[in-house]
Specification:
Helix content is 82%, strand content 2%. The chain has 239 residues and is an all-alpha fold. It has a two-stranded parallel sheet. It is elongated, with a radius of gyration of 21 Å. The two termini are 26 Å apart.
Length: 239
């Protein structure tokens, strides 16, 4: 209980920042939509731009802020006598609850935006339905995955220091530029061993069911958490 109280006090400002950014970018997106509809005189359709913007901002902040949070709190807590086996479970629990609170805030904003779109833009088609995104199985899997990713990336920073920046930059570049080109490369490389491998991987991924994807997220998250704990339980403190 003492560990939980200490980390709650230390991390309270993180939650306020995330919720504040969600609300702020939601308002900016709503203003942008109003300006766009007014000046373009569009009668085609509108969508939940505020909700989408809030979700994107929340995920971005959780991922990139969360990566740097673990090294700070880990080094501080352990140097002050906190046991690693008490610190890590509480840290992961709070990270999960933090992600869950961000998702709950986005859901409430989506309900508000639905009312805004129906009243302010009556007669214009509403493109999206946010109910498809805010399902418990999606939210819980995403919150777990983000918490595990933060723990794993934070572990890399603690263990490798500045080298971790290079690793994360390479992974980011691969995600941004490499993944969209995999399909094109596989198509142009048909008949080669590399093309067959790419085709088999794409086929396996595209053939996954919803349950299979969610189970995969849980398994990968558990793996990242296991690796992070295996290293951090013996990691020296670096101040």
């Amino acid at each position: 209980m003492r560990e939980l109280k200490a980390q709650l006090c230390a991390r309270w400002d993180e939650m306020l920042l995330i919720l504040g950014l969600e609300a702020g970018f939601f308002i900016i997106a709503e203003i942008f939509m109003a300006v766009l509809v007014h000046f373009q005189q569009t009668d085609n359709s509108v969508f939940h731009i505020g909700t989408v913007t809030a979700l994107v901002v929340a995920v971005f902040v959780v991922v990139f802020m969360g990566i740097g949070i673990l090294p700070v709190h880990f080094n501080l807590a352990v140097s002050m006598g906190s046991a690693r086996k008490r610190f890590m479970p509480v840290f992961l629990l709070l990270s999960f609850l933090e992600n869950l609170a961000a998702a709950a805030a986005a859901y409430l904003l989506s309900l508000l935006e639905t009312q805004i779109l129906r009243s302010a833009y009556a007669g214009i088609k509403l493109e999206s339905r946010t109910e498809d995104f805010f399902r418990w199985k999606y939210i819980l899997a995403a919150c777990l995955g983000l918490a595990a990713l933060n723990a794993f990336m934070g572990m890399l920073f603690i263990k490798l220091g500045k080298i971790a920046w290079t690793i994360i930059w390479v992974l980011w570049m691969v995600c941004c530029f490499g993944i969209p080109r995999i399909g094109h490369i596989a198509e142009t490389a048909k008949g080669t061993v590399f093309g067959e491998i790419c085709g088999a991987v794409i086929g396996a991924v595209s053939g996954l069911t919803e349950g299979g994807i969610l189970a995969g997220i849980v398994i990968v998250s558990a793996g990242m958490l296991a690796v992070a704990w295996g290293i951090l339980r013996k990691q020296e403190v670096r101040i």
